[in-house]
């Protein structure tokens, strides 16, 4: 009795064995991926709330920065107006009305900068209060 095996049958057997081994490794990899994704979900769930707080804080900082930059811009415009008026009026001489006008510009600039400093102090106080509450 002779058994004849053809080459294509051997190749088919090798292919089936290779496929079975590949499936075993694929199943193991998918199980590990599932475990990794579960751990990732846990990490995201635990850190989700602090991330929301960070985003809210960043939004507040950006809003405050825009407000402060607007105030600084207005103050700079006031200073520029004062300088331009002084340059224009220096040839014409100063009158009492011009002196009052310059004083008003100066007062506007001073109040703008003092508002900025006041707002910064309030923000620092709020942050310090939040830190005290957390402790």
Detailed description of the structure:
- With 135 residues, this protein is mostly helical.
- The protein has one domain.
- It has helices at residues 7-90, 96-134.
- The N and C termini lie far apart (89 Å).
Low-pLDDT parts are none
Radius of gyration: 37 Å
Provide the structure class: mainly alpha
How many domains make up the coordinates? Answer: 1
Instruction: Give the fraction of residues assigned to helices.
Output: over 70%
Number of contiguous helices: 2
Our measurement of the CA-to-CA distance between the termini, rounded to an integer number of angstroms, reads 89 Å
Largest sheet: none
Strand segment tally: 0
Mean pLDDT level: 77
Strand content: under 5%
Give the H and E element order: HH
Shape: elongated
Brief rundown of the structure:
The chain is mostly helical and 135 residues long.
Secondary-structure topology with pairs:
Blueprint: H1 7-90, H2 96-134
Helix pairs in contact: 1-2
Defining traits:
mainly alpha; 2 helices
